Amino acid sequence: MTELRAVDEHELGLTWVIEEQMGRASHALCDDSGGMWFVDPVDVPEAIERALTLGAPAGVIQLLDRHNRDNEALASRFGVPFHRLPEEIPGSPFEPFTVLDVPRWRESGLWWPAKRALVIAEVVGTVPYFRVAAKHAGIHPFLRGLPPKSPRRYDPEHLLVGHGSGVHGPDAATALEEAYHRSRRDLPRLPLAILRGR
Fold this sequence. Notes:
The protein is α+β, with helices and mostly antiparallel strands. The chain has helices at about 45-50, 70-80, 130, 170-180, 190-195, and strands at about 5-10, 15-20, 25-30, 35-40, 55-60, 80-85, 95-100, 105-110, 115-120, 125, 140, 160, 165-170.
């Protein structure tokens, strides 16, 4: 049975994190019309039940090509559209954008202008495996030498990631900038951080 490390109800909706090294995070984001959007969800009954108290399902969004998780199954269960690597999401408050598009790694991000919320599936994370020596967030270990630039153009008040808990308030923009600033600087510490995480 899948165990939860954390369940965080916040201004945007709900985030739940799985108890495992990679700390897979899922989100249920609620718009002003009462609709609720699942983002890269893992089907943990307790979390899904809590998410459903926040709004009626409006869609399921998959932001990373290999983050299949329980996306299609939940979209089918609730009879809502499934958006895989979307370029647009009609009826939603989100502005999707391309984070990375190379062979074997296609990733989209979400920007929610009204809430100044940034959702990143894989390039940025907050678990120790990503952070290394940073306080809040770090770049994916495989991308530290040359991280994609597109997420950095945003100034978020909320940073939600696919691995780890979200960062909210003034720390969100700081966390994003810190991740990029320390990307190459912390490379020598990366092997030890990965060993400690395991």
